[in-house]
UniProtKB/TrEMBL annotation:
An example molecular function term from Gene Ontology annotations: triacylglycerol lipase activity
GO BP annotation list: glycerolipid catabolic process
PANTHER family xref list: AB HYDROLASE-1 DOMAIN-CONTAINING PROTEIN, HYDROLASE, ALPHA/BETA FOLD FAMILY PROTEIN
Organism: Methylobacterium brachythecii
Record-linked Pfam families: Abhydrolase_1
The protein's name in its UniProt record: Hydrolase
Origin organism lineage: Bacteria, Pseudomonadati, Pseudomonadota, Alphaproteobacteria, Hyphomicrobiales
Length: 257
């Protein structure tokens, strides 16, 4: 991985060119979800291979507090608009004037704010694992996740979702204290009026069994140039690398071109 300085914070990223002869190499920025990494969210699920083979240059970062990027412990350092600033500065660092931007879950929230604040930099917006709870709730997540992350090993979690996030964070060998700070401040909502201002071509992809995201069609209906892709029988975890998800994104990218 490579790193760059994002306003004093070290951010790790990959920059993978399109496969030779596959296409024009249009850049696409991938922004992963909470407690994940670029590798877990995008490499292991075959997204990087799929997109580079389809002719796209893939740029993917480890969000601050995650993966190989710098760990911070002040919740205010993880405001969604601050994290969107890391993505923007990565595009600046690489000299990319505009890119397709795809985020999953927390990454979709970050990507939407990037599109709202800097529409000239976002060619298209692909939001996975985040639906109407972008507006109406904290992403469908219960309280207690931060406390579960900070608890001593073996401490019972307050609910199954918190327990699942603790287990996932341990599996990815994450900094639990940094993730606890992140979850306390990284769920900035957008209003219906703000979503109506995002005119960027948008695809909202949510599994039909996803209880964390909220309604994908409901969110798409609030945006002037958005379409919805429902992924049958997929929940928040299994929808990420779903074959229909990858094909739907490729079809959407061809149409927006």
């Amino acid at each position: 991985m490579q790193t760059f300085d994002s306003d004093g914070v070290t951010i790790a990223y990959i920059d993978v060119p399109a496969k030779a002869g596959a296409g024009a190499g249009d850049p696409i920025l991938l922004v992963h979800g909470f407690a994940s990494t670029h590798a877990v969210n995008w490499v292991n699920t075959l997204w990087v291979r799929t997109l580079t083979e389809a002719g796209y240059r893939v740029v993917a970062l480890d969000n601050r507090g995650h993966g190989e990027s710098q760990k911070l412990y002040d919740p205010e350092a993880y405001r969604t608009d601050v994290m969107a600033g890391d993505s923007l500065r990565l595009l600046d660092h690489l000299g990319i004037e505009h890119a397709d931007v795809m985020g999953y879950s927390m990454g979709a929230r970050i990507s939407a704010i990037l599109a709202l604040d800097h529409p000239e930099r976002v060619r298209s917006l692909l939001m996975g694992g985040l639906g109407l709870y972008m507006v109406d709730g904290k992403g469908g997540l219960p309280d207690g996740i931060a406390e579960a992350l900070e608890a001593p090993p073996g401490t019972p979690a307050p609910n199954p979702t918190a327990a699942a996030f603790r287990a996932f964070a341990e599996q990815t060998k994450s900094d639990l204290r940094a993730l606890a700070a992140c979850i306390r401040c990284s769920r900035q909502r957008l209003s219906r009026a703000e979503l109506a201002l995002i005119e960027t071509p948008t695809l909202v992809s949510v599994g039909t069994l996803d209880t964390i995201a909220g309604s994908g069609p409901g969110l798409a209906a609030l945006m002037p140039n958005a379409t919805s892709l429902e992924l049958p029988n997929r929940d928040h975890s299994s929808a990420v690398g779903d074959r229909l998800h990858r094909q739907g994104v490729l079809d959407f990218l061809k149409q927006r071109a």
